[in-house]
Amino acid sequence: MDSNDHRKIHWRNVVRGNVLMLGLVSFFTDASSEMIYPLLPVYFTGLVPAASAAIYIGLMDGIAESVSSLLKIYSGRLSDALGKRKLLAVWGYGISTLSRPLMALAGAGWHVVLLRFFDRVGKGIRTSPRDALISDSVHPSVRGFAFSFHRMMDHAGAVLGPVLAGLVLYSLLGTAFIEKGADVATADEMAALRWLFGLALIPGIAAMIVLTGKVEEISGKVEPVAKEGSAHPGGNAGPLPKRFYGYLGAVTLFTLGNSSDLFLVFYAKTKFQLDLLQVIGLWIALHLAKIFFSLPGGHLSDRYGRRVAIVSGWAIYVGVYFGLAFASEAWMLWGLILIYGAYYGLTEGAERALVADFVPSDKRGRAFGLFHGAVGFAALPASLLFGVFWARLGPEMAFTIGASLATAAMLLLLTVLSEKKSG
Length: 423
Fold this sequence. Notes:
The chain is mainly α. It has one domain (5-416): Growth Hormone, Chain: A. The protein is built from 16 helices and no strands.
């Protein structure tokens, strides 16, 4: 495959069909999810003692993501065996769509943890088949762009969700919504949040309509792997390339230092005393930065290689986490959040595209399952330990530890994808 092939394929020929429709599905799904997710730290303060809120956050995301990871592995293999990517995606999105709004009825912290668990069960079922379907729907030379477009749409929904949340909360709370917040959510804030969470069902239903009516199943076809992969014969029962597992090891190590972004919200709320409007604004700013960097990051990975994009993104992550450890003013936090978006833009599309580059089409469900599974399994100790470090050592030390692990992962990735081994 000519390394310049991607220049000959116009973006309009990439952003169509399944790539466009699955992007819309993620747009509506994330709008629904992000009406709820960034406000869960505030919601927890009205359900559990403030001192244990950080541990609840770590436990919730850690357990949910780890169980989700088991399902990502299984659903990826199942989609290869059945040749039915869309069916599993429908089931996964459907479970999440129904479980998220039920958080409005939560009366205790463990209720939220349980419902978040079911939300992630849905994600575990859908993610690997969906990513395999995206990779099968485009030419390999623009795979990074296609995945980055999908992530951009995901982040666009993550901007719409908080905007909708802000409008709903303002209509319910009035001027109290923009007043300086306290450490613990008030009774009025909790009531408004419950209404908001229930309304999150609406964009979730829109996602299901697009998915069931517009996304097409694609029968598996073996395509050549890209230059940073390793060509292996077809047959989904065969082994995956050894370098794929080396890459998986580097991603897993990085994930151990990559805690839930809810800790950024919790950090903003507790250290800088942001009110609800500012919390939502911070979350929107992060996702706007992700959108801004998504397509340039995907194009960079297609043109200059996945390694350049991923290592650059991880280096930005290290700098941001070290910066957060020393941030003393609110403007520093806002600046670091905007830079943090570049990490996502450079890595999200490139990491997924590299998975597809390593393996032929009929093994991609399994490969994506292992990739997402490894990331999810590492999320349990990552988020849980980050919460413990936060509670015992303080947030500054927790961010420093995360940055140190990410640095080690970056060095490992440079070894696995060295120039001598590329080709």
